[in-house]
Amino acid sequence: MNLDDELRALGRSAVVPPVDPELTAAVLARVADVPARRRLRDRWRAFLAGLCVLLAGLALTPPVRATVAEWLRIGGVEAHPVGTGPSTAPPVPGVSGNLSLEEAARVAGFTPARPVVLGAPAGVEASQGFVAMSWDGVRLEQFQSAVEPFYWKKYYSELEYVPTVDGYWFSTPHELLLVDKRVVRIAGPTLVWERSGITYRLEVADKARAIQLATGTS
Fold first, then answer.
1. How far apart are CA 60 and CA 67, in angstroms?
2. Is pLDDT above 60 for 19?
3. Which range among 11-25, 95-109, 154-168 shows the weakest confidence by mean pLDDT?
4. How would DSSP label each residue in 52-115?
5. Fewest CB atoms within 10 A around its CB: which of 35, 167, 191, 207?
6. Does the predicted TM-score (pTM) go above 0.70?
7. CB pairs under 8 A, 24+ apart, for 21-24?
8. Sheet strands (E) in the chain
């Protein structure tokens, strides 16, 4: 099979969400103004132009962004869907360390943020590029978003895009793995977002509360 046939097969098998009709009309109007050319180079140009317009339209749609997050990174977290997963998760684990936020900043190499409304955390621990802190029923982890992901998440339910923080809500229990694929634990509902080169993982049972805490994190 040559490249031309492979592209046709790929086009027949691709599944994409509906495109904005106005966007489609605009593209077709532009194409209609271009004289027909049968040379392979010009067909390639038309194909690539249409593909770029399609991808640009998809990138603006939040549901599509959630679908893309199934196989792309969310800051320092990479998410991978699986067929089945854990049905329950243990309570949100606390952090046993007793560092001050100033000490944690020195160890981690960056100034950690916290949900202001929760006050001082009950526990704080840190390592290079990483800080974890907890309150009753709430755990916040934050780490520098590097070239390689820090965590992998294996989940079996759809991700929900949260525009308020430009992040994603994992609504069901899921496996939390380190980048070397070692299972850390089963995690419960979690909100994940990135800001200024820092990735945040906020574990708390209620989505509305998670969003409220995330927007008040500074």
1. 12
2. no
3. 11-25
4. HHHHHHHHT-HHHHHHHTTTSEETTEEEEE-S---S--PPPPP---B--HHHHHHHHTS----B
5. 35
6. no
7. 23/53, 23/57
8. 73-74, 77-81, 123-127, 130-135, 138-144, 151-155, 160-162, 167-170, 174-178, 183-187, 190-195, 198-203
Strands 151-155 and 77-81: parallel
pLDDT digits (tens, 9 = 90+) for 48-59: 544 444 444 444
- Section 64-80 average pLDDT: 67
Single-letter code of the amino acid located at 149: P
Under a CB-based contact definition with an 8 Å cutoff, are residues 132 and 140 in contact? yes
Enter the tokens of residue 166: 């430009």
Sequence spans of domains, the chain: 3-60, 70-215
Would you call 72 exposed, middle or buried from its count of C-beta atoms within 10 A (0-12, 13-18, 19+)?
Answer: exposed
Residue 5, both tokens: 């046939």
Higher pLDDT, 176 or 182: 176
Backbone angles phi, psi at 31, to 5 degrees: -65, -35
Strand partners, 188: none
As given in the structure block, the two tokens for residue 57 are 């339209």
What does the angle CA 126 – CA 132 – CA 136 come to, to the nearest 5 degrees? 140
* CA 170 – CA 203 distance, rounded (Å): 9
